[in-house]
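Why does residue order matter? Because the sequence determines the fold. Keep that principle in mind as you read this record.
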Amino acid sequence: MLTEQEARRVAIAAVEEVLARRPMPSCVTLSQAAEMLEVSRPTARRMLRAAGVMANDGGKYRIEDVWRARGPTAGPTRRATP
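Structure:
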């Protein structure tokens, strides 16, 4: 049986191995950004513009900027009761 620390080490090693095989690109197209954000292309464009993110000369967006445009993520919100 694995201890909690051993299980964490195994999980971290597995994640590092997967990430090493599939590196994250430094820049993405608008279509890729929309897919990452799980929104349509027009919505992704609006989100990026609202965050002040501009495409580079090649028409691509830095991946850090795409995540920044997404904003903080939180769980589901509750509607206010009238």
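Residues 24-71 form one domain.
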